[in-house]
Amino acid sequence: MTSLALLCLLYFAVSVLTLTDSLLSSISTAAAPAASKCTLLNSFQPGFVVQGDYVIGGIFPIHFNLKMPDLNGTYRPPPINCNGHRIDPRAFRWAQSMRLAVEEINQNPVLLQNHTLGYKIFDSCGYPLTGQRAVLSMLNGVSEENSSMCTNASSLLAVIGASGSSQSIVVSKILQTFRIPMISYASTCACLSDRQKYPTFFRVIPSDDYQVKAIAQLLVHFNWIWVGLLRGDNDYGRFAAKGLLRELQDTKVCVAYQEIIPLLYTRQAGLRIMKVMRNSTAKVVLVFATQGEMTPFLRDYMTQNITGIQWVAISALVKASVFSGREYYPYLGGTIGFSNRNGHISRLGDFLQTVNPKTYPDNELVHELWESLYGCSPFPSSVTQMPPCSGQESLLEQHSAYMNTSSPRVAYNVYKAVYAIAHSLHNLLLCQPGRGPFQDNSCAQSNNIQPWQLQHYLQEVNFHIAGEEVAFDAKGDSVPYFDIINWQRGTKGNIAFVSVGLFDGTKAIGEELLIQEDRIMWAGHQSEASCSHCVFTFIRCQLLKFCRLRWR
Q: Which positions, given as ranges, span the membrane (predicted)?
């Protein structure tokens, strides 16, 4: 079966199709005539498009309020609607980082000489089904709106995305059919490292397996041998906890308890967990949960006046600004954990300033960003029901969710991903006959580059950006770098996220951690690390470990 035929089948699964009258009338009597064809009743258009010699796709959760149509099969449904006033300024910034990277590459006289990159950027609404619809739209040729669904071959070379692991799983399953590589900037599930299931998946963010290794080394470093574990009731928390226990097997560290924050949180369940924490001699508690899962738990935790706990947090939580208020410091101050490394994109701030309704008068996403930031409409209509903007609005520091470019993390990952594609394509265009993925003595013609050829060079790419090495291992994972973040009291009594070290995965085993201990402020505003152990239970734990090893 050809790729084009497969694409038709995939599209049929998620798109509403209509058949010609001649086909409908012949269903019960004969096969459809050769002239019949399927057509798409509604299209899903990208938010930003630029033409180029080689087109890459981008998928970002620009909105987080998906309006799902009623798919009951009794009438023609309306198009999937991501639009609304709940635009995510951070994700919008991530998309602009991709646009900036492409602009820089196209202006670079050395990289991709005489060739340019183009892009089609889509909004996934942070929802797997919409991400699926976006990637299918990318695959459907230049324009869904002006072409029949199954007649145009795709010019898509690679995809930047998606954000959540669940979205990347769906997108990768589709792209691997066409051997099109994708690079995720935020999907961390260790499951995506399985090359049998996800052969075209790459990422510029470390997988959860690396973060678990880093946490295990941190516990050993501070001699925290008796710890508690708190996790979410989902696959992420389950796999992370399982991975940590595996890493701790050959160490002196033991887990005193493992408690689960229920998916449907109740105060009663929270108080039961807190009773376990209060009664335990383990004063160091690891958290494998997200901001959303921890929010109701911490609300009750603070009412119980439990202090003296040394929290160790994962990257999804360690820079959660929602917990930076001064009311949290007595309970969460001293928290330590790992975060994706800061990067530096020198032109990002200036580039964001140019993205406004004056320069993009016809772009709906830009209009919605303005409505979200200012509460006014740059082009008033009966739909928005917002007051008109004055035209004098400018992006200020107060719009930090969008304009914060001092320490980009996810945006920097997007930036690196685009450059990884550019460097790989550059190497492909400079290939030597008889080398690389080609079976004969010739290289690919610049006007006939195939995605599977690019994947070979992605697997081999190695370059530096802002002093950081960018490369992929055999599983498509990137070199693991983490900043070590400590929650300290800020100048206004709030919590400040202070970098106190790093985890460098390029170093030899046992030398990856670099910690500035004199800069750390511990729980209870102490300058020395907590001591977390219980002699008798620790001895019992070690005996159990020995027995498991002895009878393995």
A: none
